[in-house]
Structure formats: C-alpha cells, structure tokens
TrEMBL record:
Pfam families: TauE. This is Probable membrane transporter protein. It comes from the Bacteria. Belongs to the 4-toluene sulfonate uptake permease (TSUP) (TC 2.A.102) family. The keyword Hydrolase does not apply. It is found in: Cell membrane; Membrane. Keywords: Cell membrane, Membrane, Transmembrane, Transmembrane helix.
C-alpha cells in the first residue's frame, strides 16, 4: 500500500513539475533497496506515464517554448544513448553519489536563484 501512495504522490508532484521522479528514485533506493540503475529505469517508465498529462496542460497554457523544446529533444536523442552506456559502466555506489551531488547542486541553485514576481517585467 505504501508503494501505491508514494507512486501517487510522486506522480502528482511530477505533473506540477516539482521533481517527483527524483523523489521516486530516492524512495526506491533508500527505502525499498532497489539498485540505482534499476531505480533509474523504473523512473523512466514512470515518466512515460506522467509526462503526457503534464505536456498537454503546459501546451494548453502556452508554457512551452517550442524552439527550446526542439533543441532539448534533439540534444536528448543524441546524449541519452551515450549516458545510458556510461551509467551501465559506472559502479552503483558512484551512481548514487553522483546523483546525490546533482540533487544538492540543483537544490542550491533553486534555493538561491533570483526570481521575478509574476506580472513584473525586468528593466
């Protein structure tokens, strides 16, 4: 039952763009004992189910820069196979450490980033 609740909660957070996938990986590796490589694969499958609903919502609300999305998709198609091969060659302990560092860097960036108030334009 706890797996269902965690899945539902991280799915909802993913739909809002909060990073539910990162929370799912943490849950799987820390509390469920899943290997990092397997948890990342599960997260990718999970993302395929959550992403379409979020994409439709963002598209309807005109929140997608189509030019930037095209460049990101192109970069992802090129780098994803290479990153997959690299992740398969890196020991699980290092993958966990690298993922932890990534989360810390992103968290600090978000914590200390300057944001504009909605409706205000910068001069």
């Amino acid at each position: 039952m706890s797996g269902f609740l965690v899945g539902a909660a991280t799915g909802i957070l993913s739909g809002f763009g909060i990073g539910g996938g990162s929370l799912l990986i943490l849950w799987l590796t820390i509390f469920e004992g899943t290997a990092q490589y397997a948890a990342a694969g599960i997260n990718l499958l999970y993302f395929l189910c959550c992403a379409p609903a979020a994409l439709v919502s963002h598209f309807r609300n005109h929140l997608i820069d189509m030019r930037a999305a095209l460049w990101c998709a192109l970069a992802g198609c090129i780098t994803s196979p290479l990153a997959s091969l690299a992740a398969g060659a890196i020991p699980t302990g290092w993958l966990r450490r690298l993922f932890g560092v990534l989360l810390l860097v992103l968290g600090c960036k978000e914590l200390f980033a300057k944001t504009e108030s909605p409706g205000r334009t910068s001069r």
